[in-house]
């Protein structure tokens, strides 16, 4: 096989098969640009960044967990609870640390359930999701409240002429790259997901898996902060979509749900493709119900195309 062919079709590398989604995303851009003039408008591009930024944040955390053969279904409820905490009309120096502490506790509970009590990740995080969603409903029973002006400015303003959603995206990418591809912890994630034992490489598997779940929840909380600033209020149901959407984006980017194979750039491509599809359907006035069906079908198709013997779910 030629070098070009290996780059585009070599699915067994540690980074997964991310080039095919990239080509599909490019084709989607070309098709949408031809179908509607609004797609290339400045306002739509900004909206696309604003829609993609929270998904990118949640998906980076989700990918970290999936790399160690896990899954985090509680990310959506963490997003919702974060917006509720930030809408309690308290100073920003109280609400933001409280939200991040809450996220760390949720991630810790997920990690302990998976590592210490050996509960399957789906069952563990589904249970914690229910608890966290209940807390979100308690804190903010319905959409409303007031988010501090500092949070709103962090999302809706500009810095040196660059719109804040773009800056959030760049910062998320830099943090994600450092964690996954430029640290010893990232190497441990791939090793654990690949099945290498602690005895072979001296890796503290339980501690690293625990850290992965804590990071996943913290990234979800960051997405919640972004969304709270964007809507300037709290909403106990705003995070509902992010559990499935983040898994779909990560799988679209070539990350294997069996663990050990994946990449940040693949996840970003998956987020971009999913956001493009959603944005395109909005521009074409596709029903919200059909959009949900399409997203579910994409997730089913992507997982079905992954090697069945490696799924283990």
From TrEMBL:
The chain crosses the membrane at residues 20-40, 52-71, 91-112, 119-139, 151-175, 210-228, 249-277, 283-305. The keyword Cytoplasm does not apply. It is found in: Cell membrane. Pfam families: BPD_transp_2. It is a multi-pass membrane protein. Its main location: membrane. Coiled coil: none annotated. It comes from the Bacteria. Keywords: Cell membrane, Membrane, Transmembrane, Transmembrane helix. InterPro entries: ABC_transp_permease. This is ABC transporter permease. The lineage of its organism: Bacteria, Pseudomonadati, Pseudomonadota, Alphaproteobacteria, Hyphomicrobiales.
